[in-house]
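[[Per-residue structure]]
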Amino acid sequence: MFRFASPWSFMLLAAVPVIVGRWRRRRPFAPLILASIGQSSTAPISWAARLSALPEMVKLFAMVLMVVALARPQWGTRQMNVTTEGINIILAVDLSESMSALDFKRDGQIVDRLEAVRGVIRDFIGRREGDRIGMVVFGSEAYTQVPLTRDYTTLATVMEKVQIGAAGPQTAIGDAIGISIKRLEDIESKSNIVILLTDGESNTGALTPEAATLVASERGIRIYTIGVGSRGRAPFRIQHPFFGEQYVYQRVSMDEAALKQIAEKTEGRYFRAADTEGLEAIYRTIDALEKTEVKVKTHMDYRETYGYFLAPALVLLSIWVILAHTRFLRVP
């Protein structure tokens, strides 16, 4: 943003017409001078006579630039500081092998469950403002993928790179909740939530979902649970040793009762998503439920730029002095 810190200085420019008027009255008229010394007014006029106004024009332009410099032109950069604490959010994402089921569509293309989740989470992150968001991934084990951060770009990039099976083939929901609780303790906040997304039932882990849920409830952490995928049988892509890539249907199961219990005991909510549209609606609902008023303090950091006008003004004044005392010297 550009501004003048002392715009009143431009009032000095009102003197410019007066200076120009006086200069025109004082300016010698070359043909009359030539006639006074006995030469015809139609005689050729020298280049010095034609450029007799040059020194005054240089001086006038220098004065205008000095007035602009006196007005203190400044270039400002807008600074924004988030003053609210925001919400601490942990996204706990299931990477077990069952997430490779091909029962979702995105942009008209059949995709696995994790691929469908990627875009929805990216949109959810993009709608948040001022919150700290972290990511925990789990399968047979659970671990922190991204600690609490406001760097949403990095978070979205990491989400694009996680792969099915990276944490093991099974599902440790209790451990995922436990790791999420630890991450929420890293930075104090008035509101802490976990969004737990899974397509299965807990069948491994050092911590049971019941025990982890009790700890979360005692610490005031709300857990929103999301069950993804179709019921019954779902298609999977496999690599057959003789026939190459094949599609087979396998039975999938989900412990919805346990997910509902986790949500109820922590004053959260349970959602079921059987398609991409439903998944998007769920994250929009959570986004609306967990809103915080973000207070933003804005200020401008200005940098003085008068030197860009003062320097050429001084150069022009130097040129005027040289011209006025050499070839264009006036003799009274």
